[in-house]
Amino acid sequence: MKEFVAKPLRNALTGLVQAGKIKALPERLDFDRPKQAEHGHLASNVALILAKAEGRKPRDLAAEIVAALPASEWIARSEIAGPGFINFFLQPAAFHAAIRNARHHRDQFGAGRMGGGEKVQLEFVSANPTGPLHVGHGRGAAYGASLANLLRFTGFDVQCEYYVNDAGRQMDILAASVYLRYLEELGVALPCAFPENAYRGDYVRAIAAHLRSREGDRLQRPAGALAGPAGEADPEAAMDALIARIKTALGPDYGILHSAGLDEILADIRDDLSAFGVHYDRWYSERSLMDKGAVAAAVERLKADGHCYLQDGALWFRATAFGDDKDRVLLRDNGAYTYFASDVAYHAEKFARGFARVIDMWGADHHGYITRVRAALRALGLDDNRLEVLLVQFAILYRGQEKISMSTRAGEFVTLRALREEVGNDAARFFYVLRRADQHLDFDLELAKRHSEENPVYYIQYAHARVYSLLRQADERSLSRPPAEVDLNLLQEERELGLADLLWRFPESVTQAAGDREPHQIAFYLRELAAAFHTYYNATRILVEEDPLRHARLALCTAVAITIANGLRLLGVSAPEQM
RNA sequence: GCGCCCGUAGCUCAACCGGAUAGAGCAACGGCCUUCUAAGCCGUAGGUUGCAGGUUCGAUUCCUGCCGGGCGCGCCA
């Protein structure tokens, strides 16, 4: 809709420039949607912006611009107001066009071309496969999936990826945890007490039980091979020692143990996300990165380019040369690469795959990590402006007043699956994106449960269902539905035009939300649209006897339904035709 | 201590890369169902945008300082 005004305004400004009345065009034209009806449907502050550079009074400039505006079938009138705003009042036809547009484009209404087919990679969740996803991950999942939908809808070529941290110490700890539970399954005495810092969740027992049913007691080893020296004070060191003993004792069979936990948990995560409507194009294994030597290669390259040095037996990356506040270890003195090293390799790999833009979604506690990754990218000669890092705050979980501490190892957490079963996918998806991702989210389970029947998501879905109810009613009473072409000029009421105007705001909101990477804007928009529809519905009889008026009103209603359905689809929420 | 994020109605949050009289939802209060779904609508009330300065036609938005909160500052991931 903004084009209806932007075009004549650009013409006017160009004309003034050619006539030498103003020096230059503004960098960009944007319009406000005034809150006050007296300020018109769209307002431009172009005269205020230009006034300074032109050395003119804003109101004088505005008058000149208005005088230069060509006639337009969409614009009813334009006024100069306040300090120098130009307020545009549009013809009803400008709003009717939204209805026509929505009905014509159907599920593509609101789609844009901003992305221009640009290849974007979006990585999100990427939780360590050491246990089921919890409600914190759910937020990242809902946010990432919605953002992916938004970017695709605005013309980006999006690939969603999950980075599987299947290498490293955490996986070994999981393997050790599974092994101890496995021994318990066999009824064998443990070589040590089950460690506090092992994974203690029940799912570990389940994995161990499955392992036993597959392998029997084949993985059992003599107690003497597993028991270590008692009295190790540091629990982390004790854990490392335990892992080492298990690896030695099991030899080649360690791989079976390792993948027993990984495979089962990863399958669970995939299944969970899929059921949540979150789909990935690729699951990228950290181990595969290691195995093909990509990590070593990335480190070698940093070394070759002189960005590294040896100190205390470790290999350091000179991150301070690229804006970080300290240097970072790539290769530890024990010969193992750091998480950072594989992440450098992973990001280099992403760009090598040809993505114009790479978007990472990380937990907000990783924000200190951004600088060093950017530093490494620059050191590798890559443009770190192509990397975008979005931070997602963890959801703080409450049960009533009581804050629930979440620890994966202790097995004390509410899983995403449990949440979905409790409040439903629709409510969960909607709740998660109802606020900005970089804000803390207080998730009260009691409240979520209580809201399950009076949830804001139902408010929006109900508006959608009401439209279909109208259509069903029309059929029952043998009142014809609107044909493809209806006389929208019959819609002249303020509410009807206002509702149609709101439809125009859908494509605008989509563009804005995608550009800002803020899906919550869609949720807010939908609530507003639903409210306007409910108001209209209550105030106006839709199913009137006269065919032309009924057709026009039903056309408006179906346009609303199309818009709601499209918006909900972007958020991964269903749009039921009946409730 | 240093760095990043945040302080907006009783609560949870918006506010369109500086715009006109700062908006919703929930909670509170008062109304609306023999006519298309009351999972709804209408109305009332609620604010010195943490504080103090600065930039300018104009600041919740940008800058500085202070107060308060969160996170980070490992050869962990």
From TrEMBL:
<dbReference type="InterPro" id="IPR014729">
    <property type="entry name" value="Rossmann-like_a/b/a_fold"/>
</dbReference>
<dbReference type="InterPro" id="IPR035684">
    <property type="entry name" value="ArgRS_core"/>
</dbReference>
<dbReference type="InterPro" id="IPR001278">
    <property type="entry name" value="Arg-tRNA-ligase"/>
</dbReference>
<keyword id="KW-0547">Nucleotide-binding</keyword>
<dbReference type="InterPro" id="IPR036695">
    <property type="entry name" value="Arg-tRNA-synth_N_sf"/>
</dbReference>
<dbReference type="InterPro" id="IPR005148">
    <property type="entry name" value="Arg-tRNA-synth_N"/>
</dbReference>
<keyword id="KW-0067">ATP-binding</keyword>
<dbReference type="Pfam" id="PF03485">
    <property type="entry name" value="Arg_tRNA_synt_N"/>
</dbReference>
<keyword id="KW-0030">Aminoacyl-tRNA synthetase</keyword>
<feature type="domain" description="DALR anticodon binding">
    <location>
        <begin position="460"/>
        <end position="579"/>
    </location>
</feature>
<dbReference type="GO" id="GO:0004814">
    <property type="term" value="F:arginine-tRNA ligase activity"/>
</dbReference>
<keyword id="KW-0436">Ligase</keyword>
<keyword id="KW-0963">Cytoplasm</keyword>
<protein>
    <recommendedName>
        <fullName>Arginine--tRNA ligase</fullName>
        <ecNumber>6.1.1.19</ecNumber>
    </recommendedName>
</protein>
<dbReference type="InterPro" id="IPR008909">
    <property type="entry name" value="DALR_anticod-bd"/>
</dbReference>
<feature type="domain" description="Arginyl tRNA synthetase N-terminal">
    <location>
        <begin position="3"/>
        <end position="90"/>
    </location>
</feature>
<keyword id="KW-0648">Protein biosynthesis</keyword>
<dbReference type="GO" id="GO:0005737">
    <property type="term" value="C:cytoplasm"/>
</dbReference>
<dbReference type="InterPro" id="IPR009080">
    <property type="entry name" value="tRNAsynth_Ia_anticodon-bd"/>
</dbReference>
<feature type="short sequence motif" description="'HIGH' region">
    <location>
        <begin position="127"/>
        <end position="137"/>
    </location>
</feature>
<dbReference type="Pfam" id="PF00750">
    <property type="entry name" value="tRNA-synt_1d"/>
</dbReference>
<dbReference type="InterPro" id="IPR001412">
    <property type="entry name" value="aa-tRNA-synth_I_CS"/>
</dbReference>
<comment type="subunit">
    <text>Monomer.</text>
</comment>
<dbReference type="GO" id="GO:0006420">
    <property type="term" value="P:arginyl-tRNA aminoacylation"/>
</dbReference>
<comment type="similarity">
    <text>Belongs to the class-I aminoacyl-tRNA synthetase family.</text>
</comment>
<dbReference type="GO" id="GO:0005524">
    <property type="term" value="F:ATP binding"/>
</dbReference>
<dbReference type="Pfam" id="PF05746">
    <property type="entry name" value="DALR_1"/>
</dbReference>
